[in-house]
Amino acid sequence: MPPVVAAVSPARQVAAAVLRRVESDGAYADRALAGEARRAGLDARDHAFAMALAFGAVQRRRTLDHVIERLARRPVGQLDPPVRDALRLGLLQLLFLGGVAPHAAVDQSVELAKAAGGPGYKLVNAVLRRGAREGPRILAQLDDRSPHGAALLHSVPDWIAALWWDALGAEEARALLARVNEPAETALRVNTLAADPAAVAAELGERGVAVRPAALEGIPLDEGLVVDSAFDVRSDPLFASGALVAQSRAAMAAARLLAPAPGARVLDLCAAPGGKATHLAALVGAAGAAGEVVAVERHEGRAEALRETCERLRAGGIVRVETGDAAQPRDPGDHFDAVLVDPPCSGLGTLQGRPDLRWRASAEAIGELSRLQGRILAAGAAALRPGGALLYATCTISPRENEQVVDAFLAAHDGFERVSTRQLTPSRDDTDGFFLALLRRSAP
Ligand SMILES: C[S@@+](CC[C@H](N)C(=O)[O-])C[C@H]1O[C@@H](n2cnc3c(N)ncnc32)[C@H](O)[C@@H]1O
């Protein structure tokens, strides 16, 4: 972690520490932010600013580095990491974050570079002063009419822009690319096993947190809330008491589309960290009904964390966690009323909230993921009783992992029909980019 500098605001110090951990140690940005913000004791407002800085600098890295290289006239790879990070943070504030005075963006970045020692702060000072004047013109020269230009302007690898161009067409792909650098909506699910949505909304409102009921066209989200003010859910007492879960509206839509009845038996394949398993538990256990969710997770550590989450959310008596491979066939005599298949995926629908993911994901991984997804879908379908519903969900916008997996499954399996298919996107729906395909087993 960089040294603490009295002259630099706490939010900027946290952002610099997060950036260092992500860029130099390979940390996940969301986890690094949670740790650094807790250590610094940031309030909700500073937390939101630190997040905008750290996530923005990671997300917009490609565009920021393009501007840095034009102004510094040298490759970013030749800069010392603290100088590089101070430049990225400074230019982000100057060019992309509204509400930051240019002199503050420059001075605070210079102080961060000074604290790292050496003469690098002089370069930071010179580049940022020029950046304030010339940066907007450099950005205006970028042209997003081709996938490559859009990838540079919106700071994603070329392959992601090309994938979305093919999948969605140029206009929608551009809108989506512009959107993935905006902060994600904050949405909450009230855990109805422990609390009443109206009472939680009223309590938050009394504390000055601006919340409104969540909605998604055609899908009821009665337990959902959208937060319109700075709010750090993980440090809220309602989170600790199990009344609240941080969950996007898209993720809430999965359990709501599957819509198991109170008392139903549900199989959840690929279940950790358990957002959907605990939502399903709230639906099958509504009003004290004796429902059950069998939640299968391959990784022991994640399965253990899922068990703890279920306890915190008072779903321990409803969810039975199994550690195992969801792609393996299950006991042929054990049939479920509903099945959720939420397999590992490229995650490209969650780039807003997982800033480093675009730099970790790879086009090469998609073929292997789609094969695994197909196998897990087939295993889930085999466990469904006739008349039962199956929801195939991913948090990606990637036809080979979505439509093509479902099409191939239906082509190879008689006795299943497609009820609905929906691709949510951040640009169209203001929530994560989930793919949700609802199938029904029409015959044994
Ligand atoms: C998309 S996440 C699931 C999210 C979860 N359903 C939720 O709502 O919180 C995929 C999960 O599948 C697990 N996983 C990966 N391969 C698996 C397999 N073959 N069998 C079971 N779980 C697997 C991963 O460890 C990860 O926890």
TrEMBL record:
It catalyses: cytidine(967) in 16S rRNA + S-adenosyl-L-methionine = 5-methylcytidine(967) in 16S rRNA + S-adenosyl-L-homocysteine + H(+). Its EC number is 2.1.1.176. Keywords: Cytoplasm, Methyltransferase, RNA-binding, rRNA processing, S-adenosyl-L-methionine, Transferase. Residues 176-444 form the SAM-dependent MTase RsmB/NOP-type domain. The active site is at residue 395. GO terms for biological process: regulation of DNA-templated transcription. It is found in: Cytoplasm. The keyword Transferase applies. It comes from the Bacteria. Pfam families: Methyltr_RsmB-F, NusB, RsmF-B_ferredox. GO terms for molecular function: RNA binding; rRNA methyltransferase activity. S-adenosyl-L-methionine binds at residues 270-276, 297, 325, 342. The keyword rRNA processing applies. GO terms for cellular component: cytoplasm. Specifically methylates the cytosine at position 967 (m5C967) of 16S rRNA. Belongs to the class I-like SAM-binding methyltransferase superfamily. RsmB/NOP family. This is 16S rRNA (cytosine(967)-C(5))-methyltransferase. The lineage of its organism: Bacteria, Bacillati, Actinomycetota, Thermoleophilia, Solirubrobacterales.
